[in-house]
Write a structure and sequence with these properties.
Low-confidence stretches: none
Shape: globular
Distance between the termini: 6 Å
Radius of gyration: 17 Å
Order of helices and strands: HHHHH
Number of helices: 5
Mean pLDDT: 88
Strand content: under 5%
Amino acid sequence: MNQLAHKCQMPWWLTVIIVIETLPMFLGPLFALNNPAFLGGPEATAVGFATWLYTARNFAVGMAFVVAYFLRSAPMLFILILIRLLTDLVDGPAFLLFGMASNEIRLTAIFVIGYYMPALIALRFLSKQMTSSTATE
């Protein structure tokens, strides 16, 4: 069977993880467009080029998540979650490195509990879905 034609199982907890992974793709740009200081720094008074790039790229990835979810495509979800995990592995330490976190412990907990662990759980489940579908061919 073709890997893309195979529909993966979607337990409720995987849906929750996908929502957790997808919401920032839409909420982040919304915050950035309404608050120039979000990406432009404290002195920013207008939305700049970086904000529009950030918005376009996050919106595209968010839409890809939505499409992959409705297609129930394990390979697409796996790649998107992996990309999101790799990005978050840079984002979390960058917030700490540049002193953008008001509370380092809270930021670390949010990234570990809210992003890293759910992503690893989803990647493990999706990899099993992909290998089980190839084993039944």
